[in-house]
Amino acid sequence: MRITIKAVTDSPAFPDQVDVVVIGGGTIDTAVTYELAKQGIAVALFEKGAIGDEQSGRN
Ligand SMILES: Cc1cc2nc3c(=O)[nH]c(=O)nc-3n(C[C@H](O)[C@H](O)[C@H](O)COP(=O)(O)OP(=O)(O)OC[C@H]3O[C@@H](n4cnc5c(N)ncnc54)[C@H](O)[C@@H]3O)c2cc1C
């Protein structure tokens, strides 16, 4: 059974500068992004499809 994943809205604009770029929006990538952001590190996450829609949404 496939779960329904709540869609995440894109940011309206690209930041001018970040400290870290995360490629991919799976569970690992989003966890890393969240932890970095919590520490005040400027981070941008780029996902080619939808957040959590690949392996992380299927397991
Ligand atoms: C059917 C199934 C069952 C599983 N069962 C278990 C289990 O019981 N226990 C367990 O521990 N693990 C399980 N796993 C494995 C687990 O789901 C994965 O190890 C984990 O979700 C991987 O997370 P991830 O964030 O690395 O990858 P993903 O969830 O695959 O995320 C990677 C993301 O990167 C994006 N991406 C890729 N290339 C680019 C690009 N060039 N630019 C932008 N974005 C890009 C993809 O679209 C995707 O959203 C299972 C996996 C599957 C498929």
Structural class determined from secondary elements: alpha+beta
Order of helices and strands: EHEH
What radius of gyration results from the CA coordinates? 12 Å
**Percent of residues in beta strands:** 5-15%
What bound compounds does this protein have? Answer: flavin-adenine dinucleotide
Instruction: Indicate the overall shape.
Output: globular
The major pleated sheet works out as: 2 strands, parallel
Helix content: 25-40%
**Mean pLDDT over the residues:** 92
Q: List segments where confidence is low: pLDDT < 50 over at least 5 consecutive residues.
A: none
Enumerate the strands of the largest sheet in spatial order, edge to edge or round the barrel.
1-2
Q: Helix segment count? A: 2
Please report the total strand number as a whole number: 2
**What is the chains' assembly state?**
single chain
N-to-C span: 10 Å
Describe what this molecule looks like in 3D.
27% of the residues lie in helices and 14% in strands. Strands 1-2 form a two-stranded parallel ribbon. The model has no long low-confidence stretch (mean pLDDT 92). The radius of gyration is 12 Å and the shape is globular. It has a domain at 20-54. The chain contains two helices and two strands; from the N terminus they run βαβα. With 59 residues, the chain is of the alpha+beta class. Flavin-adenine dinucleotide binds next to helix 1 and helix 2.
